[in-house]
Design brief:
It contains 21 helices and 10 strands. The protein is of the alpha/beta class.
């Protein structure tokens, strides 16, 4: 829709125009009203509507004078006059100051609709021209980001100057970089997350330039948005002559941009902002400074607003501190996961504090993951895991935008290793417990102790007790008792066997002890059980 600003010194007529003309049906909405030219000036400056519909004769500043001011300040705005005097002199004056048309009082709805159709066509032409100019500016400014030749810089500056409204003597720009935080965005696997309009991360990133441009248009900032690569934008904001040393945008306005992108696209973005305005010849150097500022995301995490001056430059170490890799791997191998996780976390805190060059961190992470992969696929794990291609390993690290993500990637691999180790330990323990059960099943009639069993499976008595209870839910003694009593019940079916003989056959020298166990487990004596068979 297009916006219209209404100006009339007759309050009743102004309210009638605002409230009773069906602007929405014409694709237009009323952005504001003014009661004379002076009143309208300040409001038009703030609102910057697409269309100004103004009465001609008004006190303080008439419509013709207001139109001249609008044409000087905003040559793209469309002006329509409203007059009660059907005289050629007014029409001629209106057309002389660039009006698209005029309307006579009292207003006729069909006439309004016809005039507004022409006005909207002009508005669309303005928008298309504006888009074309912005695209050309973006191309020129992107080239200036890397251009070192003063001659070429001057050529590009001259081309930019031609695109400035009113033939500005020389444009100056501040620069910001807007980078999508892929891992911190609320979109997964191409499915809508319910928080934004986009259905996938790729779709959201493709709409990022459009949403950013719309935001700057809404806050009335002359900004050029250029796509540097997928998910990264350069935002050039034209300096306003009257702004002095004031930044082009406040931190709150940048925060609102972040919230807008999050709300519409489900994307988290990091903003690196170089507030200083420079001539085109200085854009390449400004870009290097802002890009260095953007790289602080690696250490500080996603969703930051990084303003020049906030981050203090410090010494960056060129070598990594030693990582206790052997101790870390041993902690993993011994299933001391909390200790291993803490070792990794503490080390990367140190890396963050030292501001180690991120290329060194990437190389270290890849090497560490490579050695961890070797551990995962060593023969002792019996090839339980599918090997990971080194290219995929590289990609998983280089896709990380922050130190936090690198830590998470390493720990995911470590957790996978721990899972395999635990599965191996679980399988081994299950086999050992099964072996113990078989020994008991075959030798229940012999004297059996925890020491004799543990020596046969080469485990300590305490560890054997622990894994047996873990796998079976009962103690070794309970299992032995259950097996012996089951055998006793089978033997009680033979009337030729005495109770004391059965006790000895299942491994109990004391008949009375056997009877007490039987009663405790079956609720009846052996003889009573035999009678009920």
């Amino acid at each position: 829709m297009y916006s219209i600003f209404l100006v009339d010194d007759e309050q009743l007529e102004l309210e009638m125009m605002r409230d009773f003309i069906r602007w929405e049906e014409m694709g237009i909405y009323v952005a504001g009203v003014g009661i004379n030219g002076k009143d309208a000036q300040e409001k038009i400056q703030a609102i910057q509507p697409d269309i100004v519909l103004t009465d001609v004769q008004m006190p303080f500043m008439d419509g013709l004078e207001l139109a001249r001011w609008v044409r000087e300040q905003y040559d793209w705005m469309q002006i329509v006059f409203l007059t009660g005097h059907d005289e050629f002199s007014y029409v001629k004056s209106a057309l002389h100051v660039g009006a698209v048309g005029y309307l006579l009082k009292p207003l006729d709805l069909e006439e309004i609709s016809g005039v507004m159709a022409r006005v909207k066509q002009k508005c669309e032409e303005v928008r298309l021209k504006y888009k074309s100019v912005q695209m050309t500016k973006a191309k020129l400014l992107k080239e200036l980001l890397h251009e070192k030749s003063p001659v070429r810089q001057e050529q590009l500056t001259a081309e930019l100057r031609k695109l400035e409204r009113g033939g500005a003597s020389g444009p100056s720009y501040s620069l910001a970089l807007c980078s999508a935080d892929r891992s911190a965005s609320g979109i997964n696997g191409g499915e809508p997350d319910g928080t934004g309009e986009a259905g996938s991360l790729e779709a959201a990133i493709s709409r990022l330039p459009e949403v950013t441009e719309e935001y700057f248009h809404a806050v009335r900032k002359d900004a050029v948005v250029a796509v540097l690569q997928e998910g990264e934008l350069a935002i050039f904001i034209a300096a306003e002559p009257e702004s002095g040393s004031q930044p082009a945008m406040t931190r709150e306005q940048w925060g609102t941009l972040q919230q807008t992108v999050r709300g519409l696209l489900g994307l988290s973005v990091t903003l690196a902002i170089g507030n200083e305005a420079v001539e085109p010849a200085g854009i390449a150097q400004l870009y290097e400074r802002v890009r260095s500022l953007r790289d602080e995301r690696f250490f500080l995490g996603p969703g930051q607003i990084l303003v020049a001056g906030d981050v203090k430059p410090g010494y960056r170490y060129g070598t990594l501190p030693p990582f206790p890799e052997q101790a870390w791997l041993e902690a993993l191998q011994q299933l001391r996961s909390e200790e291993a996780e803490a070792m990794l976390h503490d080390y990367l805190i140190n890396v963050r504090q030292l501001r180690i060059d991120k290329s060194l961190v990437y190389e270290w992470a890849i090497d560490l993951l490579d050695r961890l992969e070797e551990q995962i696929h060593c023969p002792s794990l019996n090839g339980q895991a599918e090997p990971v291609k080194r290219a995929a390993l590289y990609q998983s690290v280089y896709d990380c935008q922050t130190l936090q993500e690198i830590e998470a990637a390493i720990w995911r691999a470590a957790a996978h290793y721990l899972e395999l180790l635990m599965e191996r330990a679980t399988d081994k323990n299950a086999k050992l417990v099964h072996q113990v059960c078989q020994i008991i099943d075959n030798t229940y009639h012999e004297p059996i102790t925890i020491q004799s069993l543990s020596s046969q499976v080469y485990l300590s008595p305490n560890y054997l007790r622990s894994i047996f209870r873990d796998k079976t839910g009962m103690t070794i003694h309970d299992y032995l008792t259950r097996i012996r009593l089951e055998k006793a019940k089978e033997m009680l079916a033979d009337p030729s066997l005495k109770v004391q003989d059965i006790a000895q056959k299942i491994g109990y020298e004391s008949t009375s002890y056997f009877i007490s166990l039987f009663v405790k487990n079956q609720g009846v004596t052996p003889n009573e059980y035999r009678k009920n068979l």
